[in-house]
Amino acid sequence: MKTLGLLGGMSWESTAIYYRLFNEIVRERLDGLHSAKLLLWSFDFAEIAERQHAGDWEGAGALLVEAARKLEAGGAEGLVICTNTMHKLADAVQSAISIPLIHIADAAAQAVVDGGVKRPALLATRFTMEQDFYKGRLAEKYGLQPIVPDQAGRDMVHRVIYDELCQGIVRPESKSAYLDEIGRMRRVDRVDGVLMGCTEITMLIGQGDFDIPVFDTTRIHAAAAVDFALA
Q1: In a 10 Å sphere around its CB, with 0-12 CB exposed, 13-18 middle and 19+ buried, how is residue 123 labelled?
Q2: Residue 128 annotated among the catalytic residues of the structure
Q3: Beta strands 193-196 and 120-123: pairing type?
């Protein structure tokens, strides 16, 4: 089993889910007392979020690159960025290390394609919904047509992520707002699936809330990383 290096703490709420999933999936595959071999770098998310909202992606990238190099030096054989949004910096991180980075968008896109979905509703941070680093990869490499909410919907989805989910707050009224937005997108935009493009969203909604396919990028990414570790 290869050792995975995790860039986490963005937020730690979703990183805790990642940690559980890595170990559950390894135990399912190998049985008994097996668990994942992991090295975790956990950021103070306030330092990352401040740079995100200030548009200082170069500064955020420098933090990730430094941590990734330390994980590689510590023995990591593959790297996982435990967040969708910070894959904006995936190329910069990959170019700074010699171990492979398991990209969340590639894993998620393949799952969407395999699920027969073409126009997934993409719920994520404003950065992921409005910038092209994620949507463009899904479209150009996999032929998908990811659809994002309208401006009001994007504002609501982003606010819930940062003001609530990243702080461990799960509110029924926020879940209702997410469900209402997906309902609107099904009527107006003809989406045929839901892509949870932020790792914290799994705390709020899931497949049980819908009769169309839902793709949990946290679980999908963790499974892809375990595939690599056990290959």
Answers
A1: buried
A2: no
A3: parallel
Q: What is the pLDDT of residues 43-92, one digit of tens each?
A: 999 999 999 999 999 999 999 999 999 999 999 999 999 999 999 999 99
Active site includes 83?
yes
- Which residues lie across from 195 on neighbouring strands? 122, 215
Sequence-ordered strand ranges (E) for the chain: 4-8, 38-42, 78-81, 120-123, 193-196, 214-216
CA–CA separation, 67 and 48 (whole Å): 13
The answer, as to whether pTM is greater than 0.70, is yes
Taking the C-alpha atoms of residue 225 and residue 104, their distance in angstroms, rounded to an integer, is 9
User: If we measure between CA atoms, which residue out of 95, 168, 152, 157 comes closest to residue 127?
Assistant: 157
Instruction: Considering the candidates 15, 82, 85, 198, report the single residue annotated as catalytic.
Output: 198
Cα separation of 68 and 188, whole Å? 42
Catalytic option among 83, 199, 202, 218: 83
Amino acid identity, residue 78? G
